[in-house]
Amino acid sequence: MTRQEILTELKKVLSPYTLEKEALANIDESTNLITDLKINSANLVDIIIDAESKYNIEIDYDAADKMVNVGGCIDVIEEKTNQQI
Amino acid sequence: MIESAGNDIIDLAAINTERTKEQRFYTKFITGTETSLYSSPPLAALPFEFFVWMLWSIKESVYKFMQRHQPDLVFSPSKIVITQIAPSVNSLLTVPELIVEALGFSNRNVYNSKITFDTEVFYANTMITAGYIYTVANDQNNFDHLYWGVQQIPQSDPSSQSREVRKFVLNKLASVIDKGNLSIVKNQAGCPILFSGTAMVNQPISLAHHGYYVAYAFPKNGI
């Protein structure tokens, strides 16, 4: 999976937690989940759990800390899915 | 003492109760020793999902308190460790009021907790009602100098929350601070900064919102 492919899929993971649909459609690696997409921090764990289910990966404490922006989410998903190969 | 503020609110109508109780959910930010706090009898009387979100709100409040002085700090809830929680004597769930504001927490039912983060120690007071969980953090176990408030709002979209929480705290600040034309601007780290006209005011404030609730906390010392 390329980073662009992960980004496209990530939009679907983030979608239930943001009303900022235009911002979501235009996300790039620097997009911050809280300040740009207005996702409530109380939903950050939901996003981690949904990403785990979608990619069949396990995201530990340290990896979860990186998932504050889209680039960080892609890093974690890329790293964890590569570990499975 | 660090001049700062940190608070957090959880709208209990906006949480996913079933998911909260799943081990794979709460173990993402609650460690084994923290989970064992739930086995003490007064806390065990709380619904488990309330316990989980109380811990979340404590960790987030401490993070906000710290972040004002460390803009690059990443929220790592598992590293903010709650070591003890002393429950209030009377923990009956009360119906939330539309608006509640006070200076300090005297005569209120709160869960008082102690937290460690790296080498530093923090304290927090948490109120649990049938509608929300609300926490204020501090670096000393004295909350008498802290103004705080919680308000229900009619809409839960982010722009309404943002507008209402600003209106709520600015209204309070205007009544206790001798400066006019107050406004709030968030800095790059997302920390709210108070302005009077174009001049920055040295007054830490913390804002919180979730679902149909908004909240603020700020210390009296800075005024």
What report would you give on this structure?
- The complex is a heterodimer of chains A (85) and B (223).
- The model of chain A has no long low-confidence stretch (mean pLDDT 93).
- In chain A, helix 1 crosses helix 5.
- Chain A has a single domain, classed as Non-ribosomal Peptide Synthetase Peptidyl Carrier Protein, Chain A (Orthogonal Bundle).
- By secondary structure, chain A is mainly alpha-helical.
- The two termini of chain B are 16 Å apart.
- Chain B has 223 residues and is α+β, with helices and mostly antiparallel strands.
- In chain B, a hairpin with a 2-residue loop joins strand 9 and strand 10.
- In chain B, the strands form 3 sheets. Chain B has a 5-stranded antiparallel sheet, with helices on one face. A 4-stranded antiparallel sheet of chain B has the order 3-7-12-11, covered by helices on one side.
- Chain B folds into 2 domains: 147 residues, Ribosomal Protein L22, Chain A; 62 residues.
- In chain B, 25% of the residues lie in helices and 32% in strands.
- Chain B contains 6 helices and 12 strands.
- Chain A: This is Acyl carrier protein.
- Chain A: It comes from Mucilaginibacter dorajii.
- Chain B: This is 4'-phosphopantetheinyl transferase domain-containing protein.
Give a nutshell description of this structure.
Helix content of chain A is 56%, strand content 0%.
Main beta sheet of chain A: strand number and arrangement?
none
Distance between the termini of chain A: 12 Å
Please tell me the overall pLDDT of chain B. Answer: 93
CATH domain class name of the largest domain in chain B: Alpha Beta
Question: What is the number of helical segments of chain B per DSSP (H or I, 4+ residues)?
Answer: 6
Total strand segments of chain A: 0
CATH-scheme architecture of chain A: Orthogonal Bundle
* Gap between N and C termini of chain B: 16 Å
User: Element order, helices and strands of chain B?
Assistant: EHHHHHEEEEEEHEEEEE
List segments of chain B where confidence is low: pLDDT < 50 over at least 5 consecutive residues: none
- CATH homologous superfamily of the largest domain in chain B - what is it? 4'-phosphopantetheinyl transferase domain
CATH domain class of chain A: Mainly Alpha
Strand content of chain A: under 5%
Largest sheet of chain B: 5 strands, antiparallel
The residue-averaged pLDDT of chain A reads 93
Oligomer: heterodimer
- CATH fold title of the largest domain in chain B: Ribosomal Protein L22, Chain A
Radius of gyration of chain B: 17 Å
CATH level-3 fold name of chain A = Non-ribosomal Peptide Synthetase Peptidyl Carrier Protein, Chain A
Protein name (chain B): 4'-phosphopantetheinyl transferase domain-containing protein
Organism (chain B): Mucilaginibacter dorajii
Organism (chain A): Mucilaginibacter dorajii
Protein name (chain A): Acyl carrier protein
